[in-house]
Automatic annotation (TrEMBL):
It comes from Kocuria varians. Residues 443-466 have a biased composition (Basic and acidic residues). This is Membrane protein. Residues 439-477 are annotated as: Disordered. The keyword Transmembrane applies. The chain crosses the membrane at residues 26-43, 55-83, 104-124, 136-154, 161-182, 206-228, 240-264, 284-306, 318-337, 349-369. Residues 468-477 have a biased composition (Polar residues). InterPro entries: YkvI-like.
Amino acid sequence: MKLSTAVPALRGDDAREDEAHVVKRIIMIGLAYFGVTVGAGFASGQEMLQYYVSYGWWGVAGALVNLLVMPITAMAILQYGSYFRAQSHGKVFHSITSMLVAKFMDYGLSVAQFCVGFVMLAGAGSNLHQQFGLPLWVGSALMVVLVLGAGMLNTDRVSNLIGGITPLMIALLLAAVVYAVLTFDGTLEGVHQFALQHGTPALPNWFLATVNYTGLSMFSGIAMAIIIGGSNWSPRAAGWGGFLGGLIFSGLLLLMVVALLLRIEDVYDADLPTLALIDKINPVLGVIASVGTYLMIFSTALGVFYSLGRRLAAPRPAAGRLIFAVVTLVGFGLSFLPFTSLVNNVFPVIGWLGVLFVAILLGTWLMSARTDISEEGLRRDRIRALLLYRLDPQRRWTPRHANTLIQAVDESNLRARQLGDFVAPDLAREAQLTRGIEISEEEQSRLGERLSDLQREHREGSEKSGAHSAQQSDERD
C-alpha cells in the first residue's frame, strides 16, 4: 500500500492558512540564520574591507562567487539539522561521516566557535569605543551581560530573538549602500587603484580570499544553524529558510562590497568601515547605526556561545547553562586583543577549516542525503496529517489509517517517541488553526509516548496475527 493513498488532505482555507504559516516560518528561519552568520566583521565592514574591497573590482567578482555558493550550502546545513532533530552539531557530523572525520569536525568547530566568539566580544568593545569614546572593556563587558541573559532562553526564543534583530541590520546596511552610490563622485578606475595601493588584503589574491571567506562565513554559523534546523519539524521549511538566509547574506555582501569600494578613500583605515560610512550620512544616524551594529555583533556572539555551550553540555545537559556562562566569560578575558588584528590573523585560519566543512556537508548532501531528506520530509507531512485527522472527533479513524500511520513511523529516521515530541507544537498549532481543536500542554508532552505505545501495540497485534496464521497452517498440514 502506498502511503499517499490514505493520507487526509487539508482543503480550502485550511490549506491556505497552513501554507501561509509555512511561508512565515521560512522567513523567520531565514532571518534567524542571517542573524547568526552576520557577525562583527560583516556588520562593521572590516571583513569586506580585507577579503573583497582590498582587491578592487576583482573583489566584486569574489562576492558574486559567494552569492552562488552560500544559499545552497545554508539549505543543506539546516536540512541536516531538521532531519536528525539535532540539538548540537555533533549529532549531524557523526551521522554523515566516519568516526575519525566526525571527531575532527566536532572538535574543530568547537574551537573555531570559541575563537569567533571572543572576536565578536572584541568587536563590541571596538564599536562603542569608535562611536562614543568608551573604554574597550565597557563594550565587551556589556555584550557579555546581554549574551548571558539571552542565553538562558530556550532554542525557539533565541532563534526568534535573533530573527527579530535582523530587519534592523538589513535596513542599516541598505542605507549605507544607497548613500555610497548617490554620493560617489570619483572614477571606477580610481577607486580600484586606491584599493589596491592602500588596502590590507587578507590573502595574496582575490580568488583565495573568496574561497576562504565563503568557508569563514558559513563556518561561523554552522553550529547554530544546525540547532535552528533541529527545532523545525519540516526539513523543507528549514531548508528554504536556510536558502533565504544565505541569499540575504550574500546579496548584502555584494552590495556592501560595492558601497565600500566606492567610498574606499573615506573608510580604508577605519576599524568599523560601515559605521564610518553611515556616520558621514548623519551623526544621529551614525549613533543608530552603532547600536544596530552592536546588535548584529550580539546576534552572532549569542549564536556561537549558545551553540558551543549546548555542544559541550551534551553529556551533561543539566549543566548546560553553567558551561555556557563559563565559556562566555573565558571569551571575555581574551577579547582585549586588537579587533582589526584578530580579524586579519584568526579569521583566515578559521576560513580554511570552514572550506573543508562546507565541502563535506555540501558534498554528502548533494550525493545522497538530499533524496533521503526529501523523502523524510514527505513522510513527516503524512504523519502530521494523519495525527491531525485522528484528533478530529468528526472524522472516522479506521484500521487503514492506523496502518498507514505506523508504516510511516516505522520508515522514519527518528523513533516514534522522538517524532511525537517533535511534531507536538506544530500539530497543536495546526489543530487549533484548522479544526478549532485545543491540545493542552500536557497532551502535547505525552504525544511521543502515545505514538510509541501505538507503534508497539500495532507490532504486537501483527505478531499475534502472524502466529495465529502459522498455527492454522500447521493444523491444516
